[in-house]
Amino acid sequence: MPTKKRILCISYDEALLTTRKLLLEEAGFFVTSPYGLAEASRICRLDHAFDLIVLGIQFPATISSP
Predict the structure, then answer these.
(1) What's this model's pTM, rounded to 2 decimal places?
(2) In DSSP terms, which residues pair with 32 in a beta bridge?
(3) HEC profile for the chain?
(4) Mean pLDDT of the chain
């Protein structure tokens, strides 16, 4: 049985993040959905085995480094 592809889906909009996660999971993917780049950076340091990264289209004008 093939393993599910892993997607990291990052956004600063909680509603869109939740919607994307539900749709992608319904399509058969394993989805990790951090809110913002700081949380995404933390997750990537612990687990960097993602098949795809999906970025939201609206990020704050100023983003501090994690």
Answers:
(1) 0.79
(2) 8
(3) CCCCCEEEEEECCHHHHHHHHHHHHHCCCEEECCECHHHHHHHHHHCCCCCEEEECCCCCCCCCCC
(4) 86
